[in-house]
């Protein structure tokens, strides 16, 4: 049975893999050619080769700054994830809490949360990583809460009837039905929040505070007209973001035994 | 009367009205009188909206009656539910995808704090009874619709209830699977000696399964007629597995092909037509 | 297709009223919490092992809510001949940024929809581009904001010198583009195969199928995508203002006020408040679109 399923899928995969790869390679070559031949100034767009050279040259700095930004993103992600799931659980238990939390989260989804960075910096001081981690945590709470709340609300009527007929207590209902049913949604929230945490950690650096992360290196390199170096840090940011995304995706796949088809 | 000899279900003057969204009221059930004998198989049949599911849900304490007396094994429905005196199965199997088949069967025991070893043993016994012993470790989604419904029936039997409540459990299955499941259910009912209250909208299903077929009509839902069913009592088991390899299906198929069966089907059909006029 | 974070629209006027009241209560509670923290936590915060775990609560760090609101009416520059209040400055900054955000949203939205149409038309194009577009939603594209800042004054488009505000709008458009392209493509491909086959059986061309089936079907996907795009455009515009040093917008005001007022952070808070209101207004603009297209929202999926 497994081979029957895997055969066509593998063929499908091959058909899916080559167009983006070809596109990527061609785009890179065109970019290189365009920049070197037509002489696009470096401030507009440096050549990929120049960026690659800078990636190699600044590799130790890239590693250390990426570690700082990645660390902030990770701490904020974990804190925000715990807060988001916890708040959603409370909201599922109490109507008052859900009615209070929903408008706040809706508003937070529309508001540029990263602008809170200077607030946390004044409140906690500009010499610690805490303000940026808090920004990340607040950014992460939003998708995790929304996704978890949606999952907790997904109890089918038949399961509800069944648990009532079995005379299950509310706690048992949560433990046997509500929570396990919400797990795929919680993991979707984590998958959405993981890359957002990196973005928030980088952008928070643009608002001041400690200058030891990827974001501040991009700004300072650009200010020094070292554009290729700035792009090298952009590449590092992209790699970091992708790494978080893939880690989130992997966690989701590992935890949810049957992948849900529901897209957020 | 001690609970053991009490009627599994006794309804006297049962009325149920729902508040309608427009501010009015829907009269779902009116003046229902029904009494099941221990081990009796009773089907409720009628067009959609006749309140047959509501009746079953009142017995299961999933809905509250507006007036009248409801006794389940001589107790209030609420007490019967809290003491797990009945098992229940719905049209949807309602299995929990994050539990294995065996763990789904164990669920009622798990909820009531039965020790793990005992749960395991009981689940194995029940899966054996519904012919799914080999699938204990599977996920529900790996099973066909009919198999899932068998798991749901096994689950409803976990607490050894003297009463089974079934709300169109075979409604979503194809005809062939359905006939096989009917034979299985009859065998299980014989083996456990449980009384069954069975909601269906299939006339042949009601006739072949039941001791009595209760015909209902809509607006307001009431009992218009009671037809004697053609349940092959005892034949499915006593002759069943033991004697010369006869399958439980055989006794049921004999009934389905008898002229008497068609007489009963016609009788129910006419009762339905009369009730809806 | 509503997000779960939103209050379900109540059926009765009473439940709608209750929802609004609870929303107000939530924000009042937030203010109370702020004041409570200020009251309870010592002025210099609480540190555990050298790490401050509770914030500083002095007026220099956490001003009273009413002080912040009062600051709105203070003159922006003390003793200047032309008196403009801080509130007016924040308002004009927020409007400036709002224009750039909405301009970016529109530009990015149009490009996103066009690309989605192209990808729907050509399977090869979809397979070549979609992985990049999906991946781009997960990588910090905003990191390039300081780089686009370098364009200011150095290049010219059609003889017009490149304006700094144009950099801001380009970044806002760039960020809004990706979620809208993905959402639109998902919407265009959402009609069931039977429906598409019905149109084919009726001998309808690509255009008719597009206008009568695919576009209406994509509305429930486009609205949430536009909501994401609006939030992204606002963040993009604010961050771009900061990193390009574009004057006139609320993002720049946050930084200016944060640097200028070390002793009195109230002004910075007013600017952040302005940015928050800006985000809500942009979301409201998408809400108007939602209302206008309401009749397509009930399309059976």
From TrEMBL, chain A:
SUPFAM superfamilies, sorted: MetI-like (SSF161098)
Topology term for the membrane: Multi-pass membrane protein
The entry's keywords: Cell membrane, Membrane, Transmembrane, Transmembrane helix, Transport
Main location: membrane
Limits of the ABC transmembrane type-1 domain: 62-251
Membrane-crossing residue ranges in chain numbering: 21-44, 73-92, 104-122, 134-153, 182-208, 228-251
Pfam families named in the record: BPD_transp_1
PANTHER family cross-referenced by the UniProt entry: ABC TRANSPORTER PERMEASE PROTEIN, ALKANE SULFONATE ABC TRANSPORTER-RELATED, MEMBRANE SUBUNIT
Name this polypeptide is given: ABC transporter permease subunit
Organism: Pseudonocardia charpentierae
TrEMBL record, chain B:
SUPFAM superfamilies: P-loop containing nucleoside triphosphate hydrolases
Tree of life domain: Bacteria
Domain spans labelled ABC transporter: 9-243
MF term (GO), any: ATP binding
Keywords: ATP-binding, Nucleotide-binding, Transport
Claim: Nucleotide-binding is one of the keywords in the record: yes
Region (Disordered): 228-251
Gene3D superfamilies, A to Z: P-loop containing nucleotide triphosphate hydrolases (3.40.50.300)
Name recorded for this polypeptide: ABC transporter ATP-binding protein
Lineage: Bacteria, Bacillati, Actinomycetota, Actinomycetes, Pseudonocardiales
UniProtKB/TrEMBL annotation, chain C:
Transmembrane spans: 20-37, 100-118, 130-153, 165-185, 221-240, 271-293
Highest rank taxon of the organism: Bacteria
Database matches in InterPro entries: MetI-like, MetI-like_sf
Keyword Magnesium: no
Location in the cell: Cell membrane
Membrane topology, as annotated: Multi-pass membrane protein
Keywords assigned: Cell membrane, Membrane, Transmembrane, Transmembrane helix, Transport
Signal peptide region: none
Record-annotated ABC transmembrane type-1 domain positions: 94-290
Major location category of this protein: membrane
The family this protein is said to belong to: Belongs to the binding-protein-dependent transport system permease family.
Protein name: ABC transporter permease subunit
């Amino acid at each position: 049975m497994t081979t029957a399923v895997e055969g066509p899928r593998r063929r499908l995969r091959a058909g899916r893999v080559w167009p983006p790869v070809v596109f990527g390679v061609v785009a890179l070559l065109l970019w290189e050619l365009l920049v070197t031949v037509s002489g696009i100034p470096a401030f507009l767009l440096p050549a990929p080769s120049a960026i690659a050279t800078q990636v190699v040259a600044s590799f130790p700095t890239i590693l250390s700054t990426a570690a700082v930004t990645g660390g902030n993103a990770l701490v904020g992600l974990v804190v925000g994830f715990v807060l988001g799931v916890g708040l959603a659980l409370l909201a599922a238990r109490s109507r008052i809490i859900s009615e209070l939390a929903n408008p706040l989260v809706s508003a937070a989804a529309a508001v540029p949360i990263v602008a809170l960075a200077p607030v946390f910096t004044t409140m906690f001081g500009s010499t610690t990583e805490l303000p940026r981690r808090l920004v990340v945590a607040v950014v992460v709470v939003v998708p995790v809460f929304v996704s978890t709340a949606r999952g907790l609300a997904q109890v089918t009527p038949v399961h509800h009837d069944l648990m009532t007929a079995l005379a299950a207590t509310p706690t048992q209902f949560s433990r046997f039905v509500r929570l396990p049913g919400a797990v795929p949604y919680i993991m979707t929230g984590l998958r959405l929040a993981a890359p957002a945490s990196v973005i928030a950690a980088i952008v928070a650096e643009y608002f001041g505070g400690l200058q030891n992360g990827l974001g501040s290196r991009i700004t300072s390199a650009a200010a020094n007209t070292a554009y290729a170096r700035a792009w090298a840090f952009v590449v590092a940011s992209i790699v970091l973001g992708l790494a978080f995304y893939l880690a989130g995706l992997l966690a989701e796949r590992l935890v949810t035994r049957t992948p849900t088809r529901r897209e957020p | 009367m001690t609970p053991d000899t009490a009627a599994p279900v006794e309804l006297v003057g049962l009325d149920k009205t729902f508040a309608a969204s427009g501010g009015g009221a829907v009269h779902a059930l009116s003046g229902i009188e029904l009494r099941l004998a221990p081990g009796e198989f009773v089907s409720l049949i009628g067009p959609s909206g006749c309140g047959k599911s509501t009746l079953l849900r009142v017995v299961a304490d999933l809905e509250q009656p507006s007036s009248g007396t409801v006794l389940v094994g001589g107790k209030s429905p609420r007490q019967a539910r809290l003491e797990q005196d009945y098992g229940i199965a719905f049209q949807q199997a309602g299995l929990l995808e994050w539990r294995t088949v065996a763990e789904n069967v164990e669920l009622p025991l798990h909820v009531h704090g039965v020790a793990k070893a005992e749960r395991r043993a009981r689940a194995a016994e029940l899966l054996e009874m519904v012919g799914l012993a080999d699938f204990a470790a599977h996920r529900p989604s790996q099973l066909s619709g009919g198999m899932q419904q068998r798991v749901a029936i096994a689950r409803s039997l976990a607490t050894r209830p003297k009463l089974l409540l079934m709300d169109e459990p075979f409604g979503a299955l194809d005809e062939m699977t359905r006939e096989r499941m009917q034979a299985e259910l009859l065998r299980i009912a014989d083996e456990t000696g449980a009384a069954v209250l069975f909601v269906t909208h299939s006339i042949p299903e009601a006739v072949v399964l039941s001791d009595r077929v209760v015909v209902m009509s809509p607006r307001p839902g009431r009992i218009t007629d009671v037809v004697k069913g053609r349940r092959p009592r005892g034949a499915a088991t006593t002759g069943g597995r033991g004697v010369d390899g006869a399958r439980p299906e055989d006794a049921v198929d004999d009934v389905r092909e008898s002229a008497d069966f068609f007489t009963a089907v016609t009788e129910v059909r006419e009762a339905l037509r009369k009730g809806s006029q | 297709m509503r997000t779960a974070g939103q209050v379900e629209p109540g059926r009765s006027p009473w439940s709608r009223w209750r929802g609004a009241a609870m929303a107000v209560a939530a924000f009042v509670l937030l203010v109370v919490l702020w004041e409570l923290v200020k009251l309870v936590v010592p002025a210099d915060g609480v540190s555990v092992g050298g790490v401050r775990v509770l914030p500083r609560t002095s007026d220099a760090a956490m001003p009273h809510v009413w002080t912040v609101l009062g600051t709105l009416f203070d003159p922006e520059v003390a003793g200047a001949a032309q008196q403009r209040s801080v509130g007016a400055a924040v308002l004009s900054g927020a409007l400036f940024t709002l224009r750039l955000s909405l301009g970016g949203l529109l530009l990015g939205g149009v490009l996103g929809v066009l690309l989605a149409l192209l990808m729907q038309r050509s399977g090869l194009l979809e397979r070549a581009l979609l992985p990049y577009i999906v991946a781009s939603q997960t990588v910090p594209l905003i990191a390039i904001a300081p780089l686009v800042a370098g364009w200011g004054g150095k290049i010219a488009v059609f003889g017009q010198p490149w304006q700094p505000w144009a950099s801001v709008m380009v970044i806002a458009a760039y960020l809004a583009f990706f979620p809208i392209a993905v959402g639109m493509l998902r919407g265009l491909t959402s009609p069931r195969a039977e429906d598409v086959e019905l149109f084919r059986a009726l001998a309808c061309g690509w255009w008719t199928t597009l206008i009568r089936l695919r576009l209406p079907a994509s509305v429930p996907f486009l609205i949430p995508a536009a909501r994401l795009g609006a939030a992204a455009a606002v963040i993009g515009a604010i961050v771009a203002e900061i990193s390009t040093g574009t004057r006139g917008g609320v993002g720049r005001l946050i930084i200016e006020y944060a640097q200028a007022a070390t002793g009195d952070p109230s002004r910075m808070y007013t600017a952040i408040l302005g940015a928050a209101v800006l985000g809500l207004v942009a979301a409201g603009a998408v809400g108007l679109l939602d209302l206008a297209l309401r009749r397509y929202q009930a399309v059976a999926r």
